[in-house]
Amino acid sequence: MPDMSTASHPSCLNLSAEKFATALPRPNVLVRSVAGLLGIPLAADINSPEDTGTMLRDGDARAAVVVQTNPVIAAAYSDEFDSVLLLRIPDKQCAATELNIGTRLIAVFNYRTGPMPRDITFGERAGNRFQNAEPLIGDLLSDDLLQLQKLKDEIPEAEWNRAARLGEETLRERPRLHRLHRPGSTHRVAGDLLITILAAVIIVVALVIGLWQFA
Q1: pTM attached to this predicted model
Q2: 167-187: average pLDDT
Q3: Most exposed among 28, 47, 96, 124, judged by the fewest C-beta atoms under 10 Å?
Q4: For residues 60 and 109, is the Cβ–Cβ distance under 8 A?
């Protein structure tokens, strides 16, 4: 679980079991086997509905704006970083929600300390308490439509505009640097887990070859 302090704008959203299941498919046997051998935890194993529900309910609700379709990418604004994180939304999660460029969504942030991922930048209004975040899109994980609309109404227009502008700029400058919107995966850049697995495989193979040569 993230080590976030009290949210300034808690979402108070309830997790939808159906939407959670849609957002967190089980990995295939090959991926699960390789990750298990290397001791790498998978999102489907470490993110329970209870943990995700707590993060969704207690996290900080901020503006998120769709900045690209096909694939759908939303820019989630963090007031802690004064910047946006780009979230690629899988097609399966978009099936029940019409998402167009400019569509407004609620991003729920839970913050972390520790190593800072390569997609995070600090704006001029940023704080310095955290180095990472685990954002979730409330509209895609909750059925609390009235609460979602209430949260959107409470967010100042300036924040919506900033999210859209920074999102367009970030997408233009770093089009491939995004995170996958899937519980348990939004704390890292998409593809970084695969890189970690491949690196671990290479190390294991090198060790095996080394041991074989000296046997």
Answers
A1: 0.81
A2: 94
A3: 124
A4: yes
